[in-house]
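Two records follow; treat each independently.
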Amino acid sequence: MVGVPRSKSCQTCLQRRVKCDLTHPECLQCSRRLTKCPGYEKRWKFYNQTVGPAKTESRTRSKPQNRVVEPEPAPFTSSRGHTIDECVEPNLVVRAFDLQGKEMFCSFLVACFPAQFASCGGRVDVNWIQYARQPILDAPQALTWAFRSLATLHLGRTYHDNEKITSSRHMYSRALNYLSDLISHPRYMRGAETLASAILLNIYEMQDGLSPLSWLAHARGLTTIIQLRGPEAHRTGFGTTLLKSCRSLLVCEAFIRGGRCFLDKPEWQKFLTEVVEAESRSAKGSQLGILVDRAFIEVSCCPRWVMETRTLINRPYNTPPSTPMPPSTLIQIMSQSRRKLSDLQQLLEIGLSRQSPPAHDTAWEAFIGPIAFNFLGTFAQSAMNGMRLAVALLDQLLELVRLHVDRGGYEDCALSLSENNPRSCIANPWAKLGSNTATWQLDFDPDYGLRRFYMTREVPGWMDRMMMSMGMLGVRPRDLL
């Protein structure tokens, strides 16, 4: 007898026991997994219906022999040694392993980014923990192995297990290979899962990198992926969470690279402003979070002002400008940005000074919104430190431009620099900037100036501090040898 399988699925979907969408020439299930679809051709299978009677007849004609009693298998195992769960559901072990890994990733997130998650987790539609726990149909292998690598690394460091740390590095390498395949595929290079995988692998590199600044190379990759996705892909849903998760990395990378951050472009500045206005009308909005987001819009332009000032000062006098921004325009824009940051800093200080006792206070609850009270002080202090660093940087840049204007004889810029602004820090951490050509090259030191230039509260890890300070914490001028 010839039998043909009743299912019309492809061979891969039949083996994986998943529903096939029957798309020709290749199904979407195989395309998402970046595997070649074997097609829908069915092979005939031959069944011998006389197997049962033949065996019965042979048994009756055969002589009785001494039968060897085989040991019975365990009650919960099959004859092949598999458990009953593996026989009924072959992928059960893999799913259990992924579920355990995602829960461990959630523990890692709360342990390493407590204030960052507390400040943004309740203000977005889908946060990282919700995204990790929700079932994702046919998740890319890059995302799966990124979750596994971070979870295993956290587990190994928690229990001081070097074998688990080594295993996490192998998982990280495997996730990088899968991510490379996703980025090279034109259909998935702009996907949210691709960006999520890149962010997780960037965080892994920050935790266990080859060098202290090796994570900056991954941050440049994040810049490319986000620009390919465009602003509208990050307006709502998990896209907003992805952008808020890595925006500080983008600013810090632009400082170290010595170039502009793409978030200072007009279309992105308009988009960031619209997102802030949308949150101000939302029920999940937080006045404290809105103040920090408005400050970030100004901070994202600081790498450009450093680049413009460096270009202006290094250019010889009485030569045509190499950039379209003249000194007077540069002075005006940086002064406006400094004024906005100072106003936002004052509003933040006033809002925190109104902190009331545990009794019900509608104004105070509207100010903090869904931000967890336990991490309110840490988040506000780190954000305020970021604002102070940005204001101090603009003060130094304006001073450098003033000296350059005085030496070059720009009469139209003299009045714009006459105002005296109060210092944001007792000692300006950017004082060395511009003293020498080599000082324009910025470095990153997460412990730079924690107690000398501004106050900070103890938080478990430099990554959380840097994220909350909008990428400003740790950036410093290069020391001269």
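The next record belongs to a different protein.
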Amino acid sequence: MEAEEQYVEGGQPAEVGTLSGEQAEAPAEGEEAAAGDAAAAAGWYTAFVFPCQPQPIYRATQEYTSSAATCPNTNFLKGVKWSPDGACLLTASDDNWLRLYDLPQDVATAPVLQHPDLLPREEQAEAAEAGGASSSGASPGAGPDNLVPALRMHAGETVYDYCWYSRMSALEPVSCCLASTARGHPIQLWDACSGAPRATYRGYNDADEPTAAYSLAFSPDGGRLLGGYNRSIYVFDVTRPGRDYKRVVTHKRKNPESITGIVSCLAWSPAGDVFAAGTYTGGLGVYDGRTYELLLLLSGTKGGLTQLLFSADGNYLYTGARQDAHMLCWDVRHTYAAVYSMERPTGRTNQRVQFDIEPAGRHLLSGGCDGSVLAYDLATGQQVDRRQVAADTVSGVGLHPTLGLLATASGHRRYGGPGNADSGSDTEETPAAATGAKRPQRPANSLLIWRMEQETLCHGAAADATTCNNP
């Protein structure tokens, strides 16, 4: 077997050039791990505070400048995802490149940047006039970037989806990898240390023709990789790249108990006992993670599903869809109807707009077509905060798994020449058309990392009365 398709025992993909007999060194138990265990035993945890004003500390905009030759429709970002250990983050953009960023070491002391999109409307207009309205994707007056990608990986074609290996840890290079799927290409497994491809997972349709997956999801134990296809889910064994997979048919003719269409999004429960699958036709099903049988069939979404996410305890499922201004919360134990809905400004766009849940499980954050980030209390579904963070659609939000950091990705597809940079399309409405808000006549493709306010709380009966300030 070639080096790029070598694996070690236990279901973890091997590092490029690593012999199959070599074992990765187990991380030593350090003082930080002991301190974390002591805090967990005491029942203390940190949570985000809302309302709060996020502080921008890192920016990458020049990396997403566009040109007519490489990216004629502006190089907008397609979301952002933190690695499971929080050591780095990953983005995809319309130029078909995946970019990996390492978290800077001075994150705790980094100064606050002067970000023009946080200024009042009048000052934003002045900054735009001073900087000049251009289609480069940079924010006028934003200053130089201080966040540079550590790796760039070319997907070859339009990126459909990408995800981190679920057990990725920077302490174990063998686990540092990610998967992506692009139009006309098989699922690619990339080495997150070198940017080199490790292996491919190939799916075939009924005519025995290779076909691309539309969505991806690693199982929590890292042993399986799910790929969403047309009316099917393919289950790949991570240790066996190539054509070997199990096909789970999601739609059968004359069978109403199924979900129709392309499987556009997938999500595992934290325990790995069940997973959810959504389609562009609005179909939503919950499957057994062992037998792959359909357990629940949920209905109520208006648009095509673009993201699914389970709560930390696995009892609730949150869904978001395109052409739909509501995110829904489902209790998978009582599935008669959605528990509640959360409104966001995405009712007239086909663009994927991400949402994420904080590690403490108290709040959900989502982007919007008006350039804002919205926060919701998951106990009630009520909106508790709304902050303007970009001059364009916020397509991606990601909360750091351990630190008080928020990553946002912005940008929107636009068609036309330099004089028509903000023209609409038949498939994706512009942010201005979607929300009625006045937006600058320029794209704002950017990746930003924000410092958020946190507080330390205690589990149990004293949780409501005990709060420690966390600077």
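Discussion point: The first strand starts at residue 44 and ends at 48. How would you locate this feature using only the token line?
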